[in-house]
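We modelled the chain as a single entity of 415 amino acids. Its sequence is:
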Amino acid sequence: MTIRDFPLDWCRHQFPALKRVVNGYPVAFFDGPGGSQVPQGVIDSVSHYLAHTNANRGGQYATAYESDELLESAHATVADFVGTSQAESIVFGANMTTLTFALSRAISKTWQAGDEIIVTRLDHDGNVTPWVLAARDACVTVKYVDFHREDCTLDLQDFTAKLTSRTKFVAVGCASNIVGTINPVEKLCQQAHEVGAQVFLDAVHYAPHALPDVTRWGCDWLACSAYKFFGPHVGILWGRPELLKSISPYKLRPVTESLPGRWMTGTQNFEGIAGTKGAVDYLTELGRQVGGPPDSRRGLLEAAYTAIGNYERQLAARLIEGLTAIPQLTVYGLTDLQRLNDRTPTVSFVHKSLPAIDLAAKLGQQGLFVGHGNFYALQVSEAFGLEPAGVVRVGLMHYNSDSEIDRLLAAIESL
């Protein structure tokens, strides 16, 4: 699919935020990795819930029945999204980090002194510190897998070397939120399982750009956040049902034994869950727009993400080629245009003389919204000596256009 073939006009029409103007400039949102914009369908889903279906679980009246039905549908919808038919394996929560802390506290009770866990130096801290703190409390050894500085890819030999018969748990990201590297998680899961370790995958940055597949990958746990893939601020945890049943969560009494309620604490953000379903519905409709199979939600999602991936790789090539041609910039991560399948369209760089915050502010005045800092990928930033300023991050989404990239490149060059 070429840039011309992708239904960009249809996609952009769904997002009301894209009509915004700042200082006379149309806004180009390059801050997607920090939180994507949302389509009108998601906004409508949230408002419709609050206006017409606002009730707590289990009530014996019309709005409660309607709310429960919608929430059950949301579990099934998100199950299709992550690649499973088991709706009861989907747990909703405040965000990925909160869910991960809750899981780490519970799962660490199954560890014993002398056990080992593995985390990586390429990950967002939300997939590092919860496990490190849990390991500390359980007197368990933490091993860190390094990454290659030349292209910011995970050091797979180092991963293999650190796996032992004592490894009980591996936490790894599907994709880096600061440099975009996509990790070979299916291979990592296979290796970890060979020594009897469980694998937790952070798919927060991956999910806006490629479709998660817990069945194919063979992981044991996966977490992501709806607000990164065009939804509201809701966290999602998937776990193997047998693990969700066997591990004891920290919960108020009475503790329900049914899934997924066993893992969902307090009253949930029901309108946000409705909006999360709306985000998957938007992606499903995109699948229809590109000719996906009409009788399969998963099939439509696969078609949508195939189109998104093809389109975004062309945008990424345009961006990387332009940034690497500017002498004042240092670009981190994979810049080989033959390896775009190994990265998301998230590109970080530093300017020779302008601090990241200043460059971001100058671009923002021209309606070019980019991120700056370390984005909680602290160990990557530290490895390159970039603290405390961090990097400028340009995160493309499928609602971005080639003309927006050209505007961005021209603005950076003019500085």
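As a brief sanity check on the tokenised model: The CA atoms of residues 106 and 171 lie 15 Å apart. The first helix runs from residue 8 to 13.
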